[in-house]
Amino acid sequence: MSDMQWTVLCTTAEVLPGERHVAWLGDTPVLVVNHDGDFYALEDRCSHEDFELSPGPYDADAGTIECVLHGARFDVRTGEPLCPPAYSAVQTFPVMVQDGLIYVSDPR
Ligand code: FES
Fold this sequence. Notes:
The protein contains no helices and ten strands. The protein has strands at residues 7-11, 20-25, 28-35, 38-43, 58-59, 64-66, 73-75, 92-93, 95-98, 101-104. The site of FE2/S2 (inorganic) cluster (FES) has 11 residues, from loops.
C-alpha cells in the first residue's frame, strides 16, 4: 500500500460487473460502481442539488449514471457532468482493490 490512508468500503463480491453499492466513508455516502471489472467510487450526491445518484439508471456501456431528479448524467470514472443541469463534477475517490476488498482514499 502507498502512504495514502485507505479505508475498506465493501467487498468485490458486493459489486459485481454492472452493479453498484453504497457505503459510508465517515459521514459521506460513497457510490461504488463496477464498470467492466474496474471499480470506481464517487460521492453519492448529485452536484446540481443535494440528491442521491445511486437510485438513477446506470448505463453499463457508457459508464454513466443519471440523476433521477433532473436528468444530469455523470461519467462514473471521472465524476464529470455530461449534460445540464449539472455543471460541476461529483467528488471521486481513488480506489484500490486487495484480497477481495475495495478500499478508497479521501483526497478532500
Ligand atoms: S439534483 Fe441531480 S440533476 Fe438536479
